[in-house]
Write a structure and sequence with these properties.
eleven-stranded mixed β-sheet, single chain, about 290 residues, alpha/beta, globular, Rossmann fold
């Protein structure tokens, strides 16, 4: 077991990781967001990456999602936890609460969301995009730590970088959305193709702009709540990582078993090389 962590807005580093090493990983999909930090936390291997880069310099649309996930797989990651600041679409999810979504709705338009193409076709099952076993551990750990959290709900992933109009925000509420963010959908899809167990820790910072009794979301308000959210997410990660079971039971572990439709003999050699960490066990590609 090795746990990867994508840090979002406000979470640029993790304290408590021992035996620290930095890794610069070259990928067929360009440079990742930043250097990867690996080490051990409570005796378990962890790999950390700030998805926006240190200093928060990469827009949500411009995050190199494929490079980030490919590199995590190359570094031996088996479980991927994505930490992300979000807006709340429900009254009960107050700013400062944590949410463990179990569904997505994709409202992005300009992003690469698959490793396939260039001569190889694959279609993974994505009906249940999160690892429920990881969600259960996170929820139980949050309860023990006294962190107010919500289990389940739909994450609406929008293009950004602007926040929603009120009309959009109200529409997403009618769709049953729980939270709204700009990053996690691509990470979840790519993690499934890479056969990584995946879940999200969504940190609610505001009520988006639908709430008539709350002021429209401002950067200042978001940053104030974010400080407490980040502290809670670090506490949660430290506890949950120690409690995650070694055995992988979710669908992600064999997601490509019947997903690749292209005959192994028909896959271009370049695609085999580029995707060796992802498809090697099925097509005999060397890593």
């Amino acid at each position: 077991m090795k746990i990867g962590i994508f840090g979002g807005s406000g979470l640029y580093e993790m304290e408590g990781i021992r035996d620290l090493q930095e890794h610069r990983v070259a990928t067929p999909f360009g440079d990742p967001s930043d250097l990867f930090i690996s080490g051990t936390l409570h005796g378990r291997g962890v790999v950390f990456l700030p998805r926006h880069g240190r200093g928060h310099r990469i827009l949500p649309t411009d995050i190199p999602y494929r490079a980030n996930v490919w590199a995590m797989k190359k570094l031996g990651v088996t479980h991927l936890i994505s930490v992300s600041a979000v807006g709340s679409l429900q009254e009960s999810i107050e700013p400062g609460h944590l949410v463990f979504p179990d569904q997505f709705i994709d409202r992005t338009f300009h992003r690469e969301s698959t490793f396939f193409g260039h001569g190889i076709v694959g279609h993974v099952q994505f009906g249940f995009p999160m690892c429920q076993h990881m969600i259960d551990v996170l929820a139980e750990t949050a309860g023990k730590l006294g962190i107010h959290s919500h289990v389940g709900g739909t994450y609406i992933c929008v293009e950004g970088p602007a926040f929603s109009t009120r009309a959009e925000s109200l529409m997403y509420r009618t769709w049953g959305g729980a939270v709204i963010g700009m990053t996690n959908l691509q990470e979840a899809k790519l993690a499934r193709e890479a056969e990584l167990c995946f879940c999200t820790i969504a940190l609610a910072t505001d009520y988006d702009c639908w709430h008539e009794e709350q002021a429209e979301v401002s950067v200042e308000a978001v940053l104030k709540v974010m400080q407490d959210n980040v502290a809670n997410s670090k506490r949660l990660l430290a506890g949950a990582i120690a409690a995650l079971p070694e055995r992988r039971e979710c669908a992600a572990r064999d997601a490509l078993r019947f997903a690749i439709l292209t005959s192994p003999d028909g896959v271009p050699e370049a695609a085999k090389r580029h995707l060796a960490p992802i498809i090697g066990r099925y097509l005999g590609a060397k890593t």
